[in-house]
């Protein structure tokens, strides 16, 4: 029998498989076991229409022979005849659609293999030689396909019943790779648990265990055992699962002491069919907003584990979601073309995203308290989602956002805010600050509150950045009450302010000169009621954004600050009547420092600030 050559593509893949140092070699077992499971499925399906094909006691059997360095995987599934051995294992281009992507880098290749494997050929990652003995159902003859990777041959063989046995002759350890671990039955059993736990058929192995006798002694024995647990919780009928079951699965799986806030168990049928069991954590993981956080979503394909941290199937803005997505039709194998997988993944992601959004919307409407709890943990993530990618996803996410507001400190959606806007109100007002308590003390809030306008409280550092990307909601602009010209006043009020500004032109110019290194302008304020001064910024960067950026080590970007003085305040008369220019300058410095403190900024020279205050106190006591 002549030794046949593999097709070029197959050969290239085989070489890659054998030599790639990035590749996760563990997956060979998963691939062979899922093939065995497929073969058992096929036999079962055939038996439904052909009564001569009984599907008796379907199972997968795995053995390890350490001495001879052999692992076998057998099944009593459909089996293959001679032609099928040739067609299925001789060439990878079975479907004819596979064209190996020439522009893939070595790293990409390794990634693909690492995630999906390349089916049967992955046996060569760990074997120097592979034999496949197979007998097709309802056929008397069996054949053996064998290969040492150079070529392959098919010869007549013996097999008692229909099915397939794959025999792998395990490679010797090299400096880079250790293969000996695969000759430890317990290692193999743990790989089966990890990757193939939810295969529907029992996977049997001879494993050492202790036999406990009646007299209390025990004895080490080797016993045939089922290694896999077969049915995962997400494949069970919802009616059979209690919330306790869901909770304890979650808590075990994610080492969380808190129960999940929300459990989402659903099934989708159609173009992209899958089952998902998703959780919203009750508390954000301690490292959630750091680079150390690992996505808690697992991808399975028909019960076979594909990967952890499956960022391909959920958008970044929902990265708090944990759980499992088990796809019915994601192929495990790159022989079905990479691109197709890509589009399958994209469809999956879209569907998962949509589901999460609808669950959140529902929570927002029907369980506001739970939603607020959720939002306090993961709200900044959603806001970041609106901001990220120049606002690409803002329309999808915007109505999931809630903010506290001046109405009654409670949360409101933007939609509700807009519905309450006064007739003469054109913009959505917000005020940013470190905390609710600090924001509420800001002097700039006074006059706007007097007008009866509601103001959103922005306390997350992402808020203002997000608003600058969002720009508007429902046609209404976001407007900071700490920035630029608010345009709150009536025509008459405006005229009055202009008149006062004109009257005090010289004084304002003097003050501008005194503060020229610190502020871009000095103005009479229309937004202050009882306070003397405040700092605002022009329409560009706000003072709060400057603070955030300086924390992020981008301290060279500064807000253009404007000092506003309340012309109705008694201090303004004091300034107007001051003859001594040095004293005026001292007062102006003091006012500027006060405005800085109110804005939550550090003052340049706290010592001299304090000295000036103290000397004023002494003066006033004279
Ligand atoms: P895939 O499983 O994606 O089809 P594989 O490379 O894993 O690709 O397997 C190639 C083909 O070989 C399978 O489609 C199947 O027809 C055949 N095959 C592999 N293992 C078995 C088995 N244990 N029993 C029967 N057929 C098998
Ligand atoms: Mg396969």
Task: Describe the structure using short key phrases.
622 residues, 23 strands, alpha+beta, Rossmann fold, binds adenosine-5'-diphosphate, Heat Shock Protein 90, Ribosomal Protein S5, domain 2, binds magnesium ion
Q: What report would you give on this structure?
A:
This protein is of the alpha+beta class and 622 residues long. It has 4 domains: 10-226, Heat Shock Protein 90 (2-Layer Sandwich); 233-371, Ribosomal Protein S5, domain 2; 390-480, Rossmann fold, CATH 3.40.50.11260; 491-620, Heat shock protein 90, C-terminal domain (Four Helix Bundle (Hemerythrin (Met), subunit A), Up-down Bundle), CATH 1.20.120. It is built from 19 helices and 23 strands. The strands form 4 sheets. Strands 1-6-5-4-7-3-2-8-9 form a 9-stranded mixed sheet, covered by helices on one side. A 6-stranded mixed sheet has the order 16-15-18-17-20-19. A 5-stranded mixed sheet has the order 10-11-14-12-13, sandwiched between helices. β2 and β3 form a beta hairpin. It starts with a strand and ends with a helix. The model is unreliable at 93-102 (pLDDT under 50). The protein binds adenosine-5'-diphosphate and magnesium ion (MG). Adenosine-5'-diphosphate is lined by residues 31, 35-36, 38-39, 75, 77-80, 88-89, 119-120, 164, 332-333, 335.
Assembly type of the chains comes to single chain
- CATH topology title of the largest domain: Heat Shock Protein 90
Question: Taking Cα atoms only, what radius of gyration do you get, to the nearest Å?
Answer: 36 Å
Q: In percent terms, what proportion of residues is strand? A: 15-25%
Q: If strands are numbered along the chain, what order do they take across the biggest sheet?
A: 1-6-5-4-7-3-2-8-9
Whole-Å distance between the termini?
118 Å
The CATH C-level name of the largest domain is Alpha Beta
Q: Which blocks of ≥5 consecutive residues have pLDDT under 50?
A: 93-102
Based on the coordinates given, report the CATH architecture of the largest domain. Answer: 2-Layer Sandwich
The residue-averaged pLDDT reads 88
Tally of DSSP helical segments: 19
Number of E strands: 23
Total discrete domains: 4
Which structural class do the helices and strands define? alpha+beta
User: What is the H level of CATH, i.e. the homologous superfamily of the largest domain?
Assistant: Histidine kinase-like ATPase, C-terminal domain
| Largest β sheet strand count, sense and barrel closure | 9 strands, mixed
Spatial shape: elongated
The kinds of small molecule bound in this structure are: adenosine-5'-diphosphate, magnesium ion
* Helix-residue proportion: 25-40%
């Amino acid at each position: 029998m002549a030794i046949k050559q593999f097709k070029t593509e197959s050969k290239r893949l085989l070489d890659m498989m054998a030599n790639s140092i990035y590749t996760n070699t563990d997956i060979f077992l998963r691939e062979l076991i899922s093939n065995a499971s497929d073969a058992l499925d096929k036999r079962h399906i055939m038996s439904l229409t052909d009564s001569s094909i009984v599907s008796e006691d379907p199972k997968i059997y795995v053995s390890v022979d350490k001495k001879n360095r052999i692992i076998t995987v057998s099944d009593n599934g459909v089996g293959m005849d001679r032609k099928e051995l040739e067609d299925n294992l001789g060439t990878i281009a079975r479907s004819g659609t596979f064209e190996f992507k020439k522009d893939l880098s070595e790293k990409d290749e390794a990634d693909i293999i690492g995630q999906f494997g390349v089916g049967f050929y992955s046996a060569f990652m760990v074997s120097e030689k592979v034999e496949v003995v197979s007998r097709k159902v309802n056929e008397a003859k069996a054949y053996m396909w064998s290969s040492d990777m150079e070529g392959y041959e098919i010869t007549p063989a013996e097999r008692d019943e229909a099915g397939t046995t794959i025999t792998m002759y395990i490679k010797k350890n090299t400096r880079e790779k250790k293969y000996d671990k695969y000759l430890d039955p317990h290692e193999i059993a743990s790989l089966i648990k990890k990757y193939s736990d939810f295969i529907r058929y029992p996977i049997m192995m001879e494993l050492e265990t202790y036999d406990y006798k009646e007299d209390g002694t025990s004895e080490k024995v080797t016993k045939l055992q089922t290694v896999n647990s077969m049915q995962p919780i997400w494949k069970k009928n919802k009616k059979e699962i209690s919330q306790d079951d869901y909770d304890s699965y979650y808590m075990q799986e994610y080492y969380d002491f808190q129960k999940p806030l929300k459990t989402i168990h659903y099934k989708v049928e159609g173009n992209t069919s899958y089952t998902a069991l998703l959780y919203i954590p009750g508390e954000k993981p301690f490292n959630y907003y750091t680079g150390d956080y690992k996505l808690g979503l697992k991808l399975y394909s028909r019960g076979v584990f594909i990967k952890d941290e499956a960022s391909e199937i959920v958008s970044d803005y929902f990265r708090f979601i944990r759980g499992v997505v088990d796809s019915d039709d994601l192929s495990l194998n790159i022989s079905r073309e990479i691109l197709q997988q890509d589009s399958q993944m994209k469809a999956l992601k879209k569907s998962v995203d949509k589901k999460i959004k609808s669950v959140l919307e529902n929570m927002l409407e029907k369980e506001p308290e739970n939603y607020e709890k959720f939002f306090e943990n993961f709200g900044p993530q959603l806001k970041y989602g609106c901001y990220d990618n120049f606002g690409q996803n803002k329309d999808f996410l915007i109505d999931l956002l809630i903010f506290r507001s001046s109405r009654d400190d409670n949360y409101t959606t933007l939609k509700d805010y807009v519905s309450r806007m006064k007739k003469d109100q054109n913009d959505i007002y917000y005020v940013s600050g470190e905390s609710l308590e600090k924001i509420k003390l800001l002097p700039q809030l006074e006059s706007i509150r007097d007008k009866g306008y509601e103001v959103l409280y922005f306390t997350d550092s992402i808020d203002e950045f997000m608003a600058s990307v969002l720009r508007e909601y429902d046609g209404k602009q976001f407007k900071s009450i700490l920035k630029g010209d608010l345009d709150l006043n009536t025509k008459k009020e405006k005229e009055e302010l202009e008149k006062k500004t004109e009257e005090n032109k010289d004084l304002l110019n003097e003050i501008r000169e005194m503060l020229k290194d610190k502020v871009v302008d000095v103005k009479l304020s229309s937004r202050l009621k009882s306070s003397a001064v405040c700092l605002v910024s022009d329409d560009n960067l706000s003072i709060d954004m400057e603070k955030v950026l300086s924390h992020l080590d981008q301290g060279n970007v500064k807000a253009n600050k404007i000092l506003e003085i309340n012309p109705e305040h008694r201090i303004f008369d004091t300034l107007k009547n001051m003859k001594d220019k040095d004293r005026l300058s001292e007062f102006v410095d003091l006012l500027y420092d006060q405005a800085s403190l109110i804005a939550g900024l550090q003052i340049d020279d706290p010592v001299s600030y304090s000295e000036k205050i103290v000397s004023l106190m002494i003066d006033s006591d004279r």
